[in-house]
Amino acid sequence: MSGLNGKVTHIAAGDNHSLAIRDGQLFAWGNNYSGQVATSGQRQFNAPEKLGSRSDWHFISAQGDLSMGIAGGELWVWGRGTSGQLGIDSHLEKTPPVRVGTRSDWESVSIGANHALAIAGGKLFSWGFNSHRQLGVARLPNSKTPVQVGEEDGWTYVSAGIFNSAGIRNGRLYTWGCNFKGSLGTGDRKDRPTPEEVGGEGWTMVSALADYSLGIRSGKLFAWGEILGKVKTDRSSRDRGRKPAQVGTRFDWSSICIKRDRVLGLANGCLFSWDQDFPLAVEGQLTPQQGGSFRSSERFDWEKVSLGSHHLLAVRDGTLFSCGENHHGQLGFTPRVNSLALAPISFR
């Protein structure tokens, strides 16, 4: 079992592949058609595959068929990125593991649909498509390599959406890029070419998508954008989507993630889902909760969660679990069948 001889500290779910850091070592599995799991010619890995011999990995991100990770402050990328998200000065759309630039102070990274955001030395960097100014630099064309956004430091969290972006600096939430559906939370539908502050202090986490976004502020969950039918907030229908509105009354949220039309969160160590049809049933039936969510388990010891297109990863007491579709081996266990319940993953 994962967790008996080592603890999983970071997880990231792509469309049909998965990443995990266990005791500083990097593992990947699932669909490998674009090399997003490993450089081997093998098309699919049904169990975690250790990548290299480094033991200083401390951050990972996965989106589509692309993977990124940070080891010893160095940023690495592998897989397929067709919109410049690779971060390397090349016309390639597919790459084996390659280092991005020469910096050695990278802290975190977030891969979006057509761009990427990262933090190095407390400063914000971006690269990829800039069609809606999602890079945060007004007059910049598309960029294949990281460019610094502004001169400010103090950035602690970033989330790259579709054509929009969000980040947290000194506890304050900033958004920029496409605002067609109100996903920036600025109170209107106008695009923002550079980061603009939204919603005051106390923000610790944000997750951006094209239609809507969610964030955690002082333990409370907030949502904005076209969220009707997905998440119930405390605002009227007339005001809904214009600015961040609180979801339910809980004040113990620790994590939130969104992927396409699915939302998953952690509060007081318990998993919550806003999709009654999502294949998740840890222990019995989903229980209706405030804010339109459904509690998936009576357990209160979940630590981390990551949502893929059709699967999810979760960590409890350092042990990694998965559930959902397993057509490409993204759940990390055999036989390669779908699972409605979170099941532990073994590491070789």
3D architecture notes:
The protein has strands at 8-13, 17-22, 25-31, 44-50, 57-63, 66-71, 74-80, 94-99, 106-111, 115-120, 123-128, 143-148, 155-160, 164-169, 172-177, 192-198, 203-208, 212-217, 220-225, 245-246, 253-259, 262-267, 270-273, 287-288, 294-295, 302-307, 311-316, 319-324, 339-344. The protein has 348 residues and is mainly beta. It has one domain (8-265): Methylamine Dehydrogenase, Chain H, CATH 2.130.10. The strands form 7 sheets. Strands 21-22-23-25-24 form a 5-stranded antiparallel sheet, with no helix packed on it. The chain has a 4-stranded antiparallel sheet with strand order 1-2-3-4, with no helix packed on it. Strands 5-6-7-8 form a 4-stranded antiparallel sheet, with no helix packed on it. A hairpin with a 3-residue loop joins strand 26 (302-307) and strand 27. The model is unreliable at 279-288 (pLDDT under 50).
